[in-house]
Amino acid sequence: MSWTDERVETLKKMWGEGQSASQIAKELGGVTRNAVIGKVHRLGLSNRAGTGASKANAKPKVAKAEPKPKAAPKVEAAPKPAAPVTDVVPTGMPPRSAARRAIIPAGQPLPPQPSANEISPEALAKVSEVEKKSKKISLMELTERTCKWPVGDPATEDFWFCGLPVKAGKPYCEAHVGVAFQPMSARRDRRR
Description:
Elements: H1 5-16, H2 21-28, H3 33-43, H4 121-133, E1 150-151, E2 160-161, H5 174-180, H6 184-191
Antiparallel strand pairs: 1-2
């Protein structure tokens, strides 16, 4: 379908009479409602605020491209000071020390961070003892038999993985399993 002069004149006439784009498409045939709307916009025909009865005797106007008056340049407001970087921590988590803050890129999941009241003091003590004895291996040294618990900030040189032998069927050593995996009842109670 092409927009011949005759079809364009019919469109202008019907649009000026206040007929809908669907009615115009039916009358023209071989054209969709959206094609009619697109042509109306390209022709610059005015939007209709009233009903077809009020515009029935009006002649359709063909909008000519008139230069728009230039608006005064907008004065941009002074930029607001950036909000201070805060910890990205789920609700119920104690904030980490300023030295351990990390910015997590958008779209990346938060690392597992169980809340402090769910981790027993014994498990925390065990983790700190284990981390003193850990092998401090790199990503390339990880195997299915080594603990994959990350320690530190991945953006720094002092980032490493635990590397101790894993607990059967788990990705972490016994101490890190105690911190990473919560009993079912604790998770269920937290959701309420």
